[in-house]
Inverse folding.
């Protein structure tokens, strides 16, 4: 019996074992077939990110934080359908990249033309194909961040081109700039990209610097207000907006203090004290972080000897620990390699990768440092896997928050309909109109009479479409752009309009001054359009970073380009024979209007003394010609205000208004005041300020100071006024500015009407950094100055703060 029982035991055991094995196999198979948690849209972003990271190899993680150049990832020849390139498939399969920069970019540097680049419908098809391949042909199916230049319109073919940032700042209208940013975001997202580079928050106090046009000017407060407007326009006002197909993640540029490099050299060393850095250059950045910007880009420059891309104190301590930034930090193009190629603080790509990663850089733009060099740095113990996971988590979080794992594709038909819509074209015209600044209007020459029959339109920038679009602009069909000449022709179709170029911006070999002089003599008014240009051409040579190499004076014909990335200047005169041309036209005695199209402040001493009317249009974008014509002929009353001071000489530079005490003394040759101060701009209307009222409500950090002022339009013309409020801390423990902008309002006032304008100040607007670098409002007297510019103060008053307020 026992033997028989023992004989039966193995049979029973085998049956149980086989049943259990079958169940285990079924369970394992079911688990294999079940979608992983990170693909479950009902889970939180954190749960999905944590799950995905737990499944990734080191190589996949490093791939996620690499962002190669995008325009190489498709092939298209003239009249041919665009297809994915073998390079893209290789990058996905071998490097498992997590994003692309400038996939839809087109310009002479990328060698993408109207024929070989992508128009909106084609762009949407390619981005769909890019995402489809990444999702379906990789182990984990992670979609890509597709990042695009977006500061004054999406830098792609067939998109809406708005005024450059310096023109946007001249509007002094954050609400309008938010609408513009919403339009740009819609165009970017509808074509399938999902990250926009902007806002650019560099404080520009050096007019020789090549990238002034990309900035909101010299004042931290104005920059901060406009920067927040761009972030809201790009990202929406709630987290859920990121998934609505209309918004994109914003990338703040350039961290930190990029706009004040030594000698105006792009990417040169920055020499700042800690108090100046935090009081001025980081002021708008802190506001952007508080506004929820999702990405921050480092700068090429160094700050006090530490390259921005390896600046742990700023990238980790300030951004993360002090300010609570939760997005990701990305290097500027090749700036990680720049740690050893330019700054010489390390001697290998591996050490550059380690230095930047350990400092707080989460993603690499364009370079290869965050590939094998970073992987080797991890293996060599120079970078911890925890730090890699941290960086990957930040990038993946943005991808999930954008909804890319659940809805990565777009409609090509919708892209074709939404990009460059009539609504966006009208908005581009509105931004351009509000940006135009009237610098002089002697004897009310402007607005010009629409019954004028004979008009001479003269100058290098009167009919050069790319000269009015600025840097970071893609090739555009000519029908999309309205030049100043065309705008005037549209405005006065029955007038006799004679156009003579006369001379180029820089080149002097083709100058013909007698022809425009004769045109002016035969005209009732001469409209002379001069300035500068950031227009790149296909003959220009470019650096690896995309900055242009300066054309040599020995070249047979010089390009017009004298501004834009890489084109720093030692003087800021009108180049070439432009001033000579202007002087010759004015000498005819014909009433002359100077229209300036340019990217940086230029010396205007002679024009300011001798030309009766001057308009500054900066780079006004595709509708610039119509906007200028609207202002010239009175269909729009200008209210643009300068966001930068215009010096009288290079020797005055820097000429910014909010200098620290003591006030500037005059030079031997000239006074220290600018030719045109910050905030300056004229109108066809006149305004009177009166009745200031101040209410102080002290409540610690919740304190509010409310200031009311009445403004009356005393003219017979409706117009807009830009009321500006400046403050001065009368007595402080550390040195503070002689005045600093702390509120402004652009307000429309009908002829004869009076409006009350209300400004509200909070402790942040009054605070300083004391001797211990505490951010604090000190008790004492604060002077307020209300006026039409930093120099033209109409009303003054003061208020008291009785208790210290620690921020």
């Amino acid at each position: 019996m026992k033997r028989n029982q023992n004989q039966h035991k193995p049979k029973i055991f085998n049956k149980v074992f086989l049943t259990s094995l079958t169940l285990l196999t079924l369970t394992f198979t079911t688990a294999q077939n079940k979608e992983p948690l990170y693909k479950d849209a009902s889970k939180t972003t954190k749960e999905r990110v944590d799950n995905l990271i737990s499944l990734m190899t080191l190589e996949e993680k490093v791939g996620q934080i690499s962002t190669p150049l995008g325009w190489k990832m498709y092939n298209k020849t003239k009249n041919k359908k665009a297809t994915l390139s073998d390079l893209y498939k290789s990058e996905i399969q071998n490097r498992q990249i997590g994003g692309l920069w400038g996939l839809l970019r087109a310009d002479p540097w990328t060698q993408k033309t109207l024929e070989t680049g992508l128009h909106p419908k084609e762009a949407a098809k390619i981005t769909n194909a890019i995402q489809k391949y990444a999702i379906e042909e990789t182990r984990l199916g992670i979609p890509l961040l597709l990042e695009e230049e977006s500061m004054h319109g999406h830098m792609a073919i067939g998109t809406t081109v708005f005024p450059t940032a310096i023109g946007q700042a001249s509007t002094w209208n954050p609400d309008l700039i938010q609408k513009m940013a919403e339009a740009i975001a819609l165009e970017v997202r509808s074509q399938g990209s999902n990250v926009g580079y902007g806002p650019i928050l560099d404080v520009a106090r050096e007019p020789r610097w090549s990238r002034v046009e990309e900035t909101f000017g010299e004042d931290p407060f104005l920059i901060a207000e406009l920067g927040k407007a761009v972030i809201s326009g790009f990202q929406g006002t709630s987290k859920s907006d990121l998934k609505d197909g209309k918004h994109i993640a914003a990338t703040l540029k350039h961290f930190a203090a990029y706009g004040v490099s030594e000698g105006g050299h792009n990417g040169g060393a920055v020499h700042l004290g800690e108090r100046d850095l935090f009081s001025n250059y980081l002021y708008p950045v802190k506001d952007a972080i508080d506004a929820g910007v999702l990405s921050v880009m480092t700068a090429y420059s160094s700050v006090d000897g530490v390259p921005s891309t390896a600046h742990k104190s700023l990238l980790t301590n300030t951004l993360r620990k002090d300010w609570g930034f939760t997005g990701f930090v990305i290097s500027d193009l090749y700036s990680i390699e720049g740690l050893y190629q330019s700054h010489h603080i390390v001697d290998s790509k591996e050490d550059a990768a380690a230095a930047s990663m350990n400092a707080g850089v989460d993603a690499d733009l364009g370079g290869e440092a965050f590939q094998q060099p970073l992987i080797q740095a991890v293996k060599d113990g120079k970078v911890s896997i925890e730090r890699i996971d941290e960086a990957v988590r930040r990038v993946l979080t943005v991808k999930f928050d954008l909804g890319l794992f659940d809805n990565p594709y777009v409609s090509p038909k919708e892209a074709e309909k939404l990009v460059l819509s009539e609504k966006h074209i009208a908005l581009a015209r509105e931004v351009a109109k509000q940006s135009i600044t009237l610098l002089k209007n002697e004897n009310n020459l402007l607005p010009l009479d629409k019954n004028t029959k004979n008009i001479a339109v003269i100058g290098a920038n009167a009919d050069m479409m790319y000269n009015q679009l600025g840097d970071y602009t893609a090739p555009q069909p000519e029908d999309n752009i309205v030049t100043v000449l065309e705008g005037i022709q549209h405005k006065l179709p029955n007038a006799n309009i004679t156009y003579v170029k006369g001379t180029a911006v820089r080149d002097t070999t083709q100058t013909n001054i007698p022809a425009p002089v004769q045109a002016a003599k035969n005209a009732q008014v001469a409209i002379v359009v001069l300035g500068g240009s950031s227009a790149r051409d296909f003959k220009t040579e470019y650096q690896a970073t995309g900055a242009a190499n300066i054309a040599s004076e020995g070249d047979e014909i010089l390009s017009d380009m004298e501004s834009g990335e890489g084109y720093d200047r030692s003087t800021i005169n009108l180049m070439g024979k432009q001033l000579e041309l202007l002087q010759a036209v004015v000498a005819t005695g014909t009433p002359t209007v100077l229209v300036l199209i340019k990217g940086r402040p230029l010396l205007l001493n002679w024009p300011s003394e001798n030309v009766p009317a001057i308009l500054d249009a900066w780079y006004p974008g595709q509708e610039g010609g119509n906007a200028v014509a609207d202002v010239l002929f009175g269909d729009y009353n200008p209210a643009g205000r300068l966001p930068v001071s215009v010096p009288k000489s290079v020797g005055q530079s820097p000429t910014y208004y909010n200098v620290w005490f003591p006030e500037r003394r005059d030079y031997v040759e000239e006074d220290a005041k600018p030719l045109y101060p910050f905030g300056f701009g004229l109108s066809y209307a006149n305004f009177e300020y009166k009745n200031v009222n101040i209410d102080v409500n002290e409540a610690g950090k919740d304190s509010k100071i409310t200031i009311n002022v009445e403004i009356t339009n005393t003219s017979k013309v409706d117009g807009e006024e830009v009321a500006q409020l400046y403050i001065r801390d009368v007595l402080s423990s550390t040195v503070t500015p002689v005045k600093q902008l702390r509120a402004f309002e652009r307000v429309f006032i009908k002829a004869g009407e009076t409006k009350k304008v209300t400004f509200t100040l909070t402790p942040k607007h009054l605070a300083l950094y004391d001797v211990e670098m505490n951010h604090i409002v000190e008790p004492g007297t604060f002077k307020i100055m209300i006026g039409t510019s930093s120099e033209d103060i109409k009303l003054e008053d003061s208020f008291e703060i009785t208790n210290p307020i620690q921020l």
